[in-house]
C-alpha cells in the first residue's frame, strides 16, 4: 500500500466521484484553555496493487518538543476490483480516499505533528500548532 | 478502494472503524469528535520553519 497524499482539513466526505473537503490545509488549532479537546480530519489518498491489498496504518501524535504522546494503528483493506484482481490493467493500482478523524486532548500549546506510517515505514509528517485563545 | 471513515481517538486510545466492532461505537466516536471540534477552532497560519540542514 502506498500513500499518495495526506491533507489535514476540517472535514472530508468521500463519494464515488471524489472527496468534498472543507477547510483543507489547516495548520492551527485554537482551544479556550489547556488541556482542551481537539478534533480534525486528515484525508488520505492511498494506492494498492491487487496482489497486496492490505496495509497497516499507524499514526503517532507528537507534542511540543516532538515527544510521542500517543500512537494508534488500524488495518486497511482495499475493496477488490469489480471484476476481480484481473480487472486492473497490468501496471495499474487501485486508489482510494480514506478520511481519518482525529481526536485528542491537547495538554500544552505549541507545535504538534501527526506522523503517518504505512506498513511500518514513515510516509509523512503533518505539523500543526495548538494555540490557546481565539484567532480573532 | 473505498474505505469508510476511521476514527483515531487518541483520548480513548482506540481506533473505530466499520466492520471491526459494533456500529454504534463508531457512531458514538464520531459524535465525540464532532463535539470536540465544536469546542475548538482551526485556521491557517504561520508555522515554525524547520531547522536548516548544514552543507557537508
Write a structural description.
- The complex is a heterodimer of chains A (136) and B (56).
- By secondary structure, chain A is mostly beta strands.
- Chain A has a single domain, classed as Immunoglobulins (Immunoglobulin-like, Sandwich), CATH 2.60.40.
- Chain A has no helices and ten strands.
- A five-stranded mixed beta sheet of chain A has the order 4-10-9-6-7, with no helix packed on it. In chain A, strands 1-5-8 form a three-stranded antiparallel beta sheet, with no helix packed on it. In chain A, strands 2-3 form a two-stranded antiparallel sheet.
- In chain A, strand 2 and strand 3 form a beta hairpin.
- Chain A is elongated.
- Chain A starts with a strand and ends with a strand.
- Chain B is α+β, with helices and mostly antiparallel strands.
- In chain B, a hairpin with a 4-residue loop joins strand 1 and strand 2.
- The mean pLDDT of chain B is 87.
- The radius of gyration of chain B is 18 Å and the shape is elongated.
- The chains are: A mainly beta (136), B alpha+beta (56).
- The interface between A and B is large, with 50 and 33 residues.
Give the proportion of residues in helices of chain A. under 10%
Strand order of the largest sheet of chain A: 4-10-9-6-7
Mean pLDDT across all residues of chain A, rounded? 92
What are the low-pLDDT stretches of chain B, counting only 5+ consecutive residues below 50? none
Structural class of chain B: alpha+beta
The CATH class of chain A, by name, is Mainly Beta
Notable characteristics:
heterodimer, A: 136 residues, mainly beta, Immunoglobulin-like, five-stranded mixed sheet, three-stranded antiparallel sheet, 10 strands, 65% strand, elongated, B: 56 residues, alpha+beta, two-stranded antiparallel sheet, 1 helix
Amino acid at each position: 500500500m502506498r500513500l499518495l497524499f495526506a491533507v489535514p482539513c476540517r472535514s472530508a466526505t468521500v463519494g464515488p466521484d471524489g472527496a468534498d473537503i472543507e477547510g483543507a490545509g489547516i495548520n492551527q488549532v485554537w482551544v479556550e484553555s489547556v488541556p482542551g479537546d481537539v478534533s480534525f480530519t486528515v484525508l488520505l489518498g492511498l494506492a494498492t496493487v491487487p496482489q497486496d491489498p492490505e496495509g497497516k496504518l499507524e499514526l503517532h501524535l507528537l507534542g511540543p518538543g516532538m515527544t510521542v504522546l500517543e500512537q494508534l494503528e488500524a488495518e486497511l483493506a482495499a475493496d477488490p476490483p469489480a471484476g476481480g484482481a484481473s480487472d486492473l490493467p497490468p501496471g495499474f493500482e487501485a486508489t482510494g480516499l480514506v478520511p481519518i478523524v482525529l481526536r485528542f486532548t491537547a495538554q500544552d500549546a505549541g507545535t504538534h505533528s501527526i506522523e503517518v506510517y504505512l506498513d511500518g515505514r514513515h510516509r509523512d509528517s503533518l505539523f500543526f500548532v495548538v494555540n490557546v485563545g481565539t484567532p480573532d | 478502494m473505498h474505505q469508510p471513515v476511521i476514527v483515531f481517538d487518541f483520548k480513548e486510545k482506540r481506533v473505530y472503524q466499520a466492520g471491526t466492532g459494533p456500529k454504534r461505537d463508531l457512531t458514538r466516536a464520531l459524535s465525540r469528535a464532532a463535539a470536540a471540534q465544536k469546542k475548538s477552532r482551526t485556521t491557517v497560519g504561520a508555522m515554525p520553519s524547520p531547522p536548516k540542514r548544514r552543507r557537508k
